[in-house]
Amino acid sequence: MKSLGGKTYYISFMDDKTRYTQLYLLTHKSGALGAYLGFKAWAHTQHIVRILVLCSDRGGKYLSREFDAHLIKQGTEQRLTAHDTPQENRIPKRLNRMLLEHVQAMLHAAQLPKGLWAEALMYAVWLKN
Hints:
Layout: E1 9-14, E2 21-26, H1 32-47, E3 53-56, H2 65-74, E4 77-80, H3 90-109, H4 117-128
Helix pairs in contact: 3-4
């Protein structure tokens, strides 16, 4: 379902140490690299840190040639989970499940339309952080 802003997808990036989460709303899954570049710029500007390792599942949005080329150019290691082993990616999976449960609860409790999922999702991430 599309959000009010016409977004259909979201991508989240979480710091392993602090569990701080940044969320980006996407129109297409192909916007993952742009979202990552935004997150990388934010991390560098706000915290003067480099992303050393990007851990992800084997989702297509992380496996494009363009994404791979950028990570190699920046010296960022990409760690992918083994095929059919969601337990290796348990923290991000738990984050996504928790966020979506919060969204459903907020929309249901306030009797709001499902089209407000993106706003509720951004609010859930803000609460979590």
